[in-house]
Structure prediction request, 464 residues.
Amino acid sequence: MLRSPASVPDPLWQHLRQHQQEHALSWWDQLDDAERQSLIEQLRDLDCATLERLYFQREQSYRVPDSSAIKPLDIVPAESPDNAAMRAAGEEALRDGELAVLVVAGGQGSRLGFEHPKGMYPIGPISGKSLFQIHAEKVRALGHRYGKQVPFLVMTSPATDDETRRFFAAYAYFGLPKEEVFFFCQGTMPALDLASGKLLMEAPGRLFLSPDGHGGTLTALAKSGLLDLLVERGIRHIFYFQVDNPLVKIGDPTFVGRHLMSRSEASSKIVPKQGPKDRLGNLVLVDGRCTMIEYSDLPDALAHERDAGGRLRLWAGSPAIHIFDVEFLARVTEGAGLLPFHIARKKVPYLDSEGRIVQPTVENALKFERFIFDVLPLAERWLVVETSHQEEFAPLKNADGADSPQTVRSALTQIAAEWLRSAGIEAPSVPLEICPLFALDREEFVRRVDRSQRIEGPTYFSQR
Ligand code: UTP
Prediction:
């Protein structure tokens, strides 16, 4: 048994002992003061009791609802007769400054294999603009259009925080007022050894930690004080999206209007699934609540069910675009640990008892993440609205193949070609791109574009 190294605070030592995690201090004597201090901070933040519970529940952490309880939900069609009225209501809220925009950008982007935060990826097919710049320019354009600055909240993680802040600063916040861009950092979770439940160490003075999932947004929003700040500023709704989708219609006034006219607490967009096993979360109805079931968890028979017209019965795929009511978020974040953890088996490099780094060849660890969609069933009133892949969903996930830079750039080109066609302009098959400051949507584009022009080569429609 390890003895308490001198200079380790006794309560911390006792806490680790109680949960059989004292091996985390095995290298204490070799650490310098700064390393000791930072290890103490990591260990102090740990909730060992929760980790222990998660480890014991590892086989049954998530239960898919019974198939008979999973039903399709009511979905507002993309083209609805009352869209104009909803848009007007949304525009009024935007003019009144009731909306904030939140992007989650704390992920490690491991599949893309880009060595910086994913938001820095240069995705513009012609401009080479980064995902962050495209999003920030949409937020800026919204502010111009409605005469009210929209606060832009950027959630980072310890893995992306520093570089993200520096990137925004280097680009002068992409023209947004600096004081309207709010960075906040999500929490982390340690990884546990699959066989023993012990904390894995990344280095002698450092636990292996990873971001606690996009569900960490809610805790981080509340902890950072931002949620209170939004309430003080009279912000009533938060438009939520993921950093990797440059097509998202940030602050879409029709969606905002529909959200507030139905007094929804949590509104979601969905895209029609193209096949039963699409790698998209499924939005469904369970016990009268809007619920997300991951594609890997949806029972096969249910995934393949079709209605009389041959359409998938559960056809609502999630592009992770939501509007949350601020009061709803304040309510749900009052209880600590509100969202459940999902447990994944992963290969995690670790320090063995001899102090050597081991690169595992099989899954050796449990990682824990919270998912934002677990907040949906907590909403008393909710709303689901259809949109299309082509219009609003082109996620950047992989280095090549599906959802790669090539498919995302081509989606940006396609939407530009589509808007050109609406303006009566045909375009040959060449890269096209529309700057959000030139036009935020099809109507604005049609109004602004010079209809006498001919498109002959790659064309960028930029702010004049
Ligand atoms: P993904 O689950 O696709 O993860 O995140 P990822 O980091 O982008 O990519 P992989 O899986 O490592 O290849 C979807 C969105 O959620 C954010 C990501 O930044 C992305 O916008 N996210 C994910 C967080 O903000 N925090 C997390 O802990 C996880």
